[in-house]
Amino acid sequence: MVRWSIVDCFDDIDDSLNAFSTIFNEVLDKHAPIRKVKIRGRLSRYITDEIRELMKSRDLWRRIARRTSNSDAWTVYKILEVTKNTKLSGTCRKILFPRVKSRAILTTQASCGRLFDRLSQR
Hints:
It is built from 4 helices and no strands. The chain folds into 2 domains: about 1-35, no CATH class; about 50-120, no CATH class. Helix content is about 65%, strand content about 0%.
């Protein structure tokens, strides 16, 4: 139980406000503490809506496969993962090919991502 009567004990309004703030903050800290939350990094700019939907579907099938240990669910998950990676690489290359002279550096998805970030900062 919070003793709010302490606020009335002071003659000076500033002291009363200080007491109220202290008590109120203690109640907030007890019932609604400040939590640290990790903010995820932004998704790459070359992830299209189609790829995002594939990722959601892939994640759903992964949850189903893990929950049920069904080999068919794992197969669907793996197919969706390969499809997502193929589309992601294709989208990355489609965006970056006109801007890059040497196509050899666009071999992996990671190199596409790093290059895309570097070029988009200019």
